[in-house]
Amino acid sequence: MTKNKRLDLSYTQMKWETVFRRILVIMSVLLLLLVVGILITLIVQSMPSIKSLGIGFLWGKIWDPVSNIYGAYPFLIGTLLTSFTALLISVPFSYAISIYLGEYNPKGWLSNLLKNSIELIAAVPSIIYGFWGLFVLVPVIRTFEAKIHIAPYGVGIFTSSLVLAVMIIPYAASLGITLIRMVPSPLKEGAYALGATRFEVIRSVIMPYTRSGLFAGVLLSLGRALGETMAVTMLIGNTSTIANSFKEIFFGPGNTMASVIANEFTEADHTVYLSALIELGLVLFFVTVIINLIGKRIITKFTNH
Amino acid sequence: MKVIKSLQLAIVAIAASCITLSASAQDNTLLGAGSTFVYPLFSKIFAEYGKTHDVKVNYQSIGSGGGILQLTNKTVDFGGSDAPLNAEQAKKIGVPVLHIPMASGAVVVTYNVPGVKGTLKLTGKDLADIYLGKITNWNSGEIKATNPGANLPDLPIVVIHRSDGSGTSFIFTDYLTKVNPEWASKIGKASAVNWPAGLGGKGNEGVAGLVKQTPGAIGYNELAYAIQNKMAYADVQNKSGKFITPTLETTTLSSNVELPANAEVSLTNTDNPKGYPITSFTWALIYKEQKYSDRSAARAKTVLTLLWYNIHEGQKNCAPLNYAPLSKSAVKVAEKILKSATYDGKAIL
């Protein structure tokens, strides 16, 4: 009986197999440890504020470092409002870009040029967006606000959302392009063979095939929008008072959790103040986790159908 | 087990790097941290000092609060701060800390009012009412009363304040607290407060940017910043009822009054009839007892000599950089404070 040499794994081969698997495990566990570590640090450091303010921190509307009253409500609203507005504005663009560069024009110099410039948008530092917004966009918005009879501040939640939208387009678009290009040709060819038009192929073959992936891209850009700090700080107007009507809140100045932390952390000179800022970080952490969980649920639901 | 071993290895490596760090802090390299406001002045003075003395100073401009924290943790030789220690910070440090005035600075009220003639004049009370959101238009009676013939337009006032915690905001709110009882009871003074009106800009440049862009805006900036950026700023009424143009001279004059022996004093709303009312010292902070951790007597002496140089020869660097030099009475107080520092109970200077 001849011996099958393929079945005899050498010692080096075996060792490499183990080492490689261990590297993979260690890398993933390290990242998990990092996140858990961040969570523990946030909880421990925000204890003084949790003890003195309790759960009311979440819906308190006053942020007053002088008399040690802290409420996260205005910043929670600001963060959610800017992020979701930015998402609403950016989704049509990122989907259109994905479909055009993924299906209509996947090859050639124009396609490459467009794809590279979209990826470049993600590489621009956020402070550049902040200055661009401050000096170019704000005057335009101010004229617009004067026309629709709102206090013409220029800066505010709407302005920040516009800039955020531009900043997050590449995340969803880049993923979308790759996914749409990966749709197997036999599927598309089959649809064409049955007489489907290009739009019909996109609607009934490509979209169902890539839906969950595209949505994951959108979730990724939402995460980016929730945490963006610098550009938003420069454009949002940084006020913690909440206006009365939705129109005034939407076009008026506001503030986000990330931007308050960035603004006030260096000079937070007493324990509860510092701790309240860290608790804001904790709230932001949970907001991101909850939104991601909801997103995952939606993806699973889509894929099961 | 392997994981534990590698963790131990990492801890040893980190500890080793810490030891080399503290060993590298030799006696001719001093460490300082704190106020960003005083940073340009400090780096100029320390560079000049380094030419004639074998001393290098590494000053990190991380903000006053950070400087105080580093001093508390004893990782620096001196801290820089735009405000004296507050009760909680003093309690945390636990031992006496000396506040040595290094220079003074002014906060000016910048504005952007199209078509207005000459320089605007504002009283402290009106300024606070503007920031409280009670005076909302440039042609309101109160502003007209102090600016006859200034051609004030019918334009809403857009209030701009700092969004980040800052010594500049502390000086400004400290002044408003002194001159307006309603401000004192509702808002108070701090490096960040609950602003009742307006927009926040990040940093001096953020406030200046918003003021320059927005017609009808009013803001506040450091004097040096306003001069360098050619912004319009208002004359402010002082305690004696005179409207004072903020300059380096009027800023210095504001501290030329009877000062308390520890120099931990707010200069705003000065008694000096020629002084500009929104000013403050910026301080260097050191421990009164210089023997702590494993500091040598030589190191303590180097720190004290450097600070002595700062309040004397170093002062000539102030004016070219738009800082107000210390007044005569301030230098006198600063000398006494430096002489009170001790090493192991004995005077150093």
Automatic annotation (TrEMBL), chain A:
- Provide the alphabetized UniProt keywords: Cell membrane, Membrane, Phosphate transport, Transmembrane, Transmembrane helix, Transport
**Where do the ABC transmembrane type-1 domain residues begin and end?**
76-295
Entry superkingdom: Bacteria
Q: What is its main location?
A: membrane
Q: Which PROSITE patterns match?
A: ABC_TM1
Cite the Pfam families for this sequence.
BPD_transp_1 (PF00528)
What InterPro entries would the database entry show? Answer: MetI-like, MetI-like_sf, Phosphate_PstC, Phosphate_Transport_Permease
Q: Which residues cross the membrane?
A: 23-44, 73-97, 118-141, 153-180, 213-236, 272-295
Give the matching Gene3D superfamilies: MetI-like (1.10.3720.10)
Biological process annotations from GO: phosphate ion transport
Role, per record: Part of the binding-protein-dependent transport system for phosphate; probably responsible for the translocation of the substrate across the membrane.
Query: In its UniProt entry, what is this protein called?
Result: Phosphate transport system permease protein
UniProtKB/TrEMBL annotation, chain B:
Pfam families membership = PBP_like_2 (PF12849)
Q: Which UniProt keywords apply?
A: Phosphate transport, Signal, Transport
The segment(s) forming the PBP domain are 25-301
Q: Which GO terms describe its cellular component?
A: ATP-binding cassette (ABC) transporter complex
Q: What does this protein do?
A: Part of the ABC transporter complex PstSACB involved in phosphate import.
> What protein family does this chain belong to?
Belongs to the PstS family.
Q: What is this protein called?
A: Phosphate-binding protein
Organism from which the protein derives: Mucilaginibacter frigoritolerans
